[in-house]
Amino acid sequence: MNIREVMEQREKELLSPYAAYSSDTAGRKRQEEECDVRTCYQRDRDRILHSKAFRRLKDKTQVFLAPQGDHYRNRLTHTLEVSQIARTIARALRLNEDLVEAIALGHDLGHTPFGHAGERALDRIHPGGFAHYRQSIRVVELLEKNGDGLNLTAETLDGILNHTTAGQPSTLEGQVVRISDKIAYIHHDMDDAQRAGIVTEDDIPVTLRMLLGYTTRERLNTFVHDIIESSAGQPSIRMSTDIMEGMMELRRMMFRNVYENPVAKKEEGKAMDMLAQLYDYYLAHPETMSEEYRLLFRRKGVPVEMAVTDYISGMTDQYSMDRFREIFIPVAWEVF
């Protein structure tokens, strides 16, 4: 037996009967020779980690657009926090950590510049609408590796596609990432909002703090422990009723005080208008897009509108601003 086969055997000996075993994967759309060292989910994780889309996450907004400070989260740090929370839960429940990590690292690859503001902008102007979780699937199936995609396993694709609140992942590992995503953004967005002076601990009702904890750290600990205790030995991932209700109340408070706060969101309208103008420009001048996106509609039959959406959604915050400045802002004439 090679190293991969030993690890696959060890999974069946050590993991929960509800776990997704690497040896039982539904496979990839394009059949490949197995690696002799890594399991299929480890290969998925590595492919995502080495992708261009993953590297671009470091320059994409999480909540606060262009924050003045070194410690505010971006889309990459959010992704890493989701991964760490999900791995902690998966390990405690004896689920497949490699699959959890692959899903967590890939779940936001399709996110736009400027966070959900960018997502709303593209959803309004693209004829087919836009959702970051569907775009994440396009990234890993088509856009990476010059149009060949990453050829991930069915289980990883399912977890990425179904990581949102409305999703229904088919594996417990996908369910872990789905709830960890929610926990992560509630936790770190509250932390960032307190750092920005938008909310304080005193804004949280005392009854909610008594239930969940008096600091962001205590509340994260409460959520993780409750999921582990409620899901142990169960065929689904769940939270106890009171903690789930408390978490959702905290989430509603975050929407009222942070996500819809006019102070925190005052620049989003500008960002949305900018992306809309870029969309119209590239639709009229698709030949000015990067080569890999021109190839989409020239050789792969992708509609121009979709190729433009792929291009803009893949941009970082700074790159989109640079392109806008280059296209629309006059440059001062210089005498040589």
How is this structure best described in words?
The mean pLDDT is 94. The chain is built from 16 helices and no strands. By secondary structure, the protein is mostly helical. 60% of the residues lie in helices and 0% in strands. It is flat and about 70 Å long. The longest helix has 24 residues, at 172-195. It folds into 2 domains: 37-259, Hypothetical protein af1432 (Orthogonal Bundle); 268-323, no CATH class.
Q: Could you tell me the strand content as a percent range?
A: under 5%
Give the rounded overall mean pLDDT.
94
CATH classification, class level of the largest domain: Mainly Alpha
Note the gap between the termini.
71 Å
The total beta strand count reads 0
CATH topology of the largest domain: Hypothetical protein af1432
Q: Which regions contain 5 or more consecutive residues with pLDDT less than 50?
A: none
Proportion of residues in helical segments: 55-70%
- Helix/strand order: HHHHHHHHHHHHHHHH
Rg is 21 Å
**Main sheet overview:** none
Question: SS-based structural class?
Answer: mainly alpha
Query: So what's the overall shape?
Result: flat
Please give the domain count: 2
Count of discrete alpha- or pi-helical segments spanning 4 or more residues: 16
CATH superfamily placement of the largest domain: Hypothetical protein af1432
CATH architecture label of the largest domain = Orthogonal Bundle
